[in-house]
Design a protein that fits this description.
The structure holds 2 protein chains of 2 kinds. Chain A is built from 12 helices and 8 strands. By secondary structure, chain A is an alpha/beta fold. Chain A has one domain (about 15-310): Alpha-Beta Barrel (TIM Barrel). In chain A, helix 5 (about 105-115) links the parallel strand 2 and strand 3 (about 125). The longest helix of chain A has 19 residues, at about 170-185. Chain A is globular. Chain A starts with 15 loop residues before the first helix and ends in a 12-residue tail after the last helix. The longest helix of chain B has 21 residues, at about 100-120. Chain B has helices at about 45-65, 70-85, 85-95, 100-120, 125-130, 165-180, 195-205, 220-230, 240-250, 270; strands at about 15, 20, 30, 35-40, 130, 140-145, 150-155, 180-185, 210-215, 230-235, 260, 275-285. Chain B is built from 10 helices and 12 strands. By secondary structure, chain B is an alpha/beta fold. In chain B, the strands form 4 sheets. Chain B has a 5-stranded parallel sheet, with helices on both faces. Chain B has a single domain (about 15-20, about 40-285), classed as Aldehyde Dehydrogenase, Chain A, domain 1 (3-Layer(aba) Sandwich), CATH 3.40.605. The chains are: A alpha/beta, B alpha/beta.
Chain lengths: ~325, ~290
Amino acid sequence: MISPGISQNVPKINSEQELRNFLKTLSPVDQVGAQARAAMLATRSIKTTSKLWAIDTAISMVDLTTLEGADTPGKIKTLCAKAVRPDPTDSSVPHVGAVCVYNDLVAIARKELDAIGGSDVPVAAVATAFPSGRASMKVKLADTKDAIESGATEIDMVIDRGAFLSGNIGLVFDEIVEIKATINELSGGRAHLKVILETGELVTYDNVRKASYLAMLAGADFIKTSTGKVNPAATAPVVLVMLEAVRDFCHDYGRMIGVKPAGGIRTTKDAIKQLVLVNETAGEKWLDPKYFRIGASSLLNDLLMQRMKMKNGYYSSANYVTID
Amino acid sequence: MMSRIEVMKTYKLFINGAFVRSESGRSYEIKNSKGKFLANPAQASRKDLRDAVSAAKTAFIGWSEATAYNRGQILYRIAEMLEGRRDQFVSEIIAQSGVTQKIADSEVSQAIDLWVWYAGWSDKLSSVGGNQNPIAAQFYNFTTPEPLGAIAIFPNQKAKSASGTLLNIVASLAPVICAGNTAILIAPQSAPLTAMSLAEVLATSDLPAGVANILTGKSEELVSWVGSHMEIDGVDCSGLSNSDQVAIKVSGAENLKRIHKFADDKSTERILKFMEQKTVWQPIGI
């Protein structure tokens, strides 16, 4: 097994047995405790200027996503316009964190973003046979290479949940290591790797914690909850467990890893709950688009409508935001 | 032997097909005509209004596209359900306003008949409210009325009889949903109980969730939010003072709300005022 060797402090894993031994040292998740803490943090009330700050921060963290079979170049172009200038009537709204699309549309997105002044907005691609991950390693690597060459600077890969659940964790680890190596090689270390755990299929919080550590040890820059194609997706306790994992990992080994909840976050209230979770679990350092992203599509419109409500003093309507 | 304790009804709000307490947790006390305690209905806040409006807006997509025939059937079903609960409404009207059995009975009958009357109109509206226009060119030119969207309703509070609230509520709600609009009805502050009981009827009448939403509380708290809310497309101000109506007209100008006040219970005008006239040109011979 190849060791990633990202940072000298991160433990080197030389065999599946070592990985297994490492994951055994993790304490199990207190399920009731995690649920209760997530529910308690969800009751925090964020108002007025704090809310306005939270809305703008959330907008800057949105990975504006479209992952439909019916996507077209035209749709990607409008998505890019929205990513750069979410509210056409208000230039004080920040641009979003990234645009997230399927591989074949990466080049179109990159070109469009550069053309309309959004060169600082990265393009994320879902590679490695998204969303199921059921393809041979050869195909997954080719998929990743294709995305990087088309201009993606963030790769969202899925893990092999089947292998993980049947105990074949070495395979899962190796895949992440190999994809990471390919990304580093092709992009000269500039592109990031987000590892999608698909927590809705991992069944237990213990598995979420183990998979989070596995991904972090293998070299993930971000750990992401879900593909958005499986329910449940980014539930609060799952995000809590993942945030605890990145916090502890950073404390122990000095490497800061980002978290990206995706799927089911549709309202401003949901987004603000996520920010509270981040602040109270991982800490303020993670309240940064470099370390926290929210994978969403319809969320952005709700954030914009709430922003208008805060600025104008009355409830806005969907007629005043762009149609996706 | 202990005497039995009566099980009292909790009067909640009716939003998106569900009975919910006010988000604010508030309620207020109402008394009967003799000044005795009657109930603690929920006191809706602006956030309950917001929830009701988004429910109405979502429900509008399906309800406005339902066939007129289907809408008529559902309105008729409401009349059937109301008939089945006649006794409940009669005793509630008596408790709330102290009228005689005879007056209460007649009011419930009139309310049921009014549902039937509006049920009949739903598939005849486009014939009566629309037109085939004469034009001097090779075109057919049709005008048909189409529903507007989410309508906020402040039902008339001045009753002809001593009770009159059920009739006023039906008279303002039935024409709005008959047209294919969805409604947010703010029940009269002093007599909200019949409105909430009517919600129980609506909930069991195949009316899709969110088509009719009913709030109870203090209307003066909600007026300015109704006026400025950009997703409300029309307001029935029958139960508001002139100054409140003016306030709604001023803030409602921002998104061109249709704002009306009605005097009579039974008129096609009540339906058509919250509809838009759509004109279509169709070339002849193509």
